[in-house]
Amino acid sequence: MSMQTPDEKGGFVTIFDDTYDQPDCRAYYRMQRRLGYAIHAHAVPIYRAVLAELVRLRGLAPGAPRILDFASSYGIVSALMKHEVSVAEFYDHYADPALDALDPAGMVAADRDWLRSLPLREPRARYAGLDVSENAVAYGRAVGLFEEAFAEDLQQHAPSAALSAWLARTDLIVECGSVAHLMPDALDRVLSAARDNRPWIVVSPVRGNERAEAFAVMADHGLVVETLGLPPVPHRHFEGRAEQMRAIAIARAAGHETDGFESTGAFFAQIQLARPADELTDPATWPSPPPWPAEHATNPPMKD
Fold first, then answer.
1. What are the residue ranges spanned by the domains of the chain?
2. Statement: 17-285 belongs to CATH 3.40.50.150
3. Which of 34, 26, 30, 28 is nearest to 99 (CA)?
4. CA–CA separation, 131 vs 60, rounded Å?
5. Residues forming beta bridges with residue 202, ordered by sequence position
6. Which helix or strand (DSSP H or E) is residue 268 part of?
């Protein structure tokens, strides 16, 4: 469940498999920096606003909310939700050449200390990572981002007993990388295990990756999907002209206007919130209303 899962019809995005299952996260975040990943800067502040409203609406105690970071990789979404750190600061940290001298165990120790030095955000919550990459979720747990880490392929298999137990108490499912819409079977297994707690789910599918099957799964579980009135946001730069042309064709086939979006040189994503019909509060009344993304650009600022 790495963040760049290919479209089943083939060739939607360029795959960077060599970065997804390393013993530490340096190559992964340096790749994201090189390609101008901006989705986290735009999406995670909205995810934090969603969490704050969920906590308020359900009266959840401080530190009680449980969050599943779906297709978590090394845990950047959890890190940005949990700690007072910007995306730019996050990428700058891993770009530091001084880290090159560390072995993976040294990186774990350094990252554990660095993350502990960062103030915690409110509302506080408990996080679990889920990904097919065992190294990635193990790293996230070792540095303290995840309370639990699950290396499981739910598109192929039912969740383990341990994962099922976590899901049964999950309040919010977050996914930032377009994967949930490509994995309706995994999404169904997650929501089935979490059914009694009626979790909200917030995702950011790349335009053209939205699948009717995923919307159907969420509807079957009693969830209403909204975009909260938010515009599409930049995901990352295209790796090259061929990738751009594929993305434009696929986005247009899905009914999207690509001029001013994919034509500028980047994938664009649409943030979507799914929640029970009886919990459709107006975002304008939330404790922290979702921040309206800044005007998009080929090189969007990575600040939150």
1. 17-285
2. yes
3. 26
4. 27
5. 174, 273
6. strand 266-269
Q: Where are the alpha helices (DSSP H) in the chain?
A: 26-34, 39-58, 76-82, 87-95, 104-117, 134-142, 161-167, 184-193, 212-220, 241-253
**Tokens at 165, concatenated:** 């137990």
Contact 13, 4 (CB under 8 A): yes
- If phi > 0 it is left, if psi is from -120 to 50 it is alpha, else beta; for residue 208 that is left
| Residue 265 CB neighbour total at 10 angstroms | 15
Q: Is 101 left (phi over 0), alpha (psi -120 to 50) or beta?
A: alpha
The CA-atom distances, in angstroms, between 273 and each of 115, 182, 218, 283 are: 28, 16, 10, 11
Closest CA to 272 of 303, 304, 243, 229: 229
Amino acid at 196: D
Q: What is the pLDDT of residues 143-184, one digit of tens each?
A: 999 999 999 999 999 999 999 999 999 999 999 987 888 899
CA 284 to CA 228: how far, in whole Å? Answer: 10
**Distance between CA 268 and CA 204 in Å, rounded?**
9
- Token output for 145: 């981002």
Q: How far apart are CA 160 and CA 158, in angstroms?
A: 7
> Which pLDDT score is estimated for 18?
72
Length of the chain: 304
Question: What pLDDT, on a 0 to 100 scale, did the predictor assign at position 13?
Answer: 52
Q: Are 304 and 80 in contact (CB under 8 A)?
A: yes
pLDDT for the residue 42? 95
Each residue of 249-276: pLDDT tens digit?
Answer: 999 999 999 999 999 999 999 999 999 9
Tokens (6 digits) for 287: 């404790």
- Token couple for 270: 């649409």
Alpha-carbon distance of 125 to 117, in angstroms, equals 18
What is d(CA 6, CA 162) in angstroms, rounded to the nearest whole number? 28
